[in-house]
Amino acid sequence: MKSGESCDEIRLLMQADVDGELQAAESARVAAHLGTCPACAELQTRLIALSGALRRDVPRHRAPGHLREAVRKRVGASEVGRPRSLRRWSTGALAAGALAAGVAFLSLLPIRDAGPGINPDFIVASHIRALQPQHLLDVVSTDQHTVKPWFAGRLPFAPPVQDLAAKGFPLVGARLDHVPGNAAAALVYKRREHIIDLFVWPAEPDESTAGATGTREGYNYIHWWANGMIFWAVSDLNARELAEFASLWR
């Protein structure tokens, strides 16, 4: 494969990546592969949509305490004396089975888009992945005149860059990112100790979703279009201040 990883290996890790359960090194492996494999990138997009739909639409019922304890004991007992290699195989098999079941179930659920070909679950997952150590920044600079030319030759477009330090939202750097079908610029800002990712890439406007806002997994997002570019701002910053950031940027 172009990234040096087989699709089968990466797909065993993808659901855990969507759920934020991978270590930084494994998450980086997945991200590198997705950047060169459109089929796996599309599959991850659909897994993110499935994960979001399940969290929103499927009612949850907590198992009673005695049942949870019985399951823990049964699982613990089944692992005693089992060779470590067999434990790894069974874990991989379970992951593969879960992935296959999830893919089969995808056709039953609508994907809720909030932009051309992109849904907010994917954007929020990209933000969460970037917050892992060594993932957030490719270039560290508070100067928009350093950050903007840094993208030259790295992206097929020139993203707009603004420094809002005077308004309380300083630019701290940027990185290259990926959304399904597009390379994206990710501009990184701060508000006190909160990180704001602003994803930018060229696209035609979708008037039906202009100005979309919402929350996923405790992260707020705002989506807009301007001057031939799609913008997604994502942060754990409160919704009011994130809206202020978006308003200043526009």
Describe the structure concisely.
The chain is of the alpha+beta class. The protein is 44% helix and 20% strand. Strand 2 and strand 3 form a beta hairpin.
Written account of the structure:
It is a single chain. The protein is an alpha+beta fold and 250 residues long. It has 8 helices and 7 strands. The protein has helices at residues 7-18, 24-34, 38-57, 65-79, 84-106, 120-130, 144-150, 239-249; strands spanning 139-140, 171-179, 182-191, 194-202, 213-216, 219-226, 229-235. Strands 1-2-3-4-7-6-5 form a 7-stranded antiparallel β-sheet, sandwiched between helices. β6 and β7 form a beta hairpin. Residues 84-91 and 104-116 have low confidence and may be disordered.
Number of strands: 7
CATH architecture of the largest domain: 2-Layer Sandwich
Largest sheet: 7 strands, antiparallel
Query: In oligomeric terms, what are we looking at?
Result: single chain
Strand order of the largest sheet: 1-2-3-4-7-6-5
The tally of structural domains comes to: 2
Kindly report how far apart the N and C termini lie. 40 Å
- Into which percent range does the helicity of residues fall? 40-55%
- CATH C-level of the largest domain: Alpha Beta
Mean pLDDT: 75
Put simply, the count of helices is 8
CATH H-level superfamily title of the largest domain: MucB/RseB, C-terminal domain
Shape: globular
DSSP strand content: 15-25%
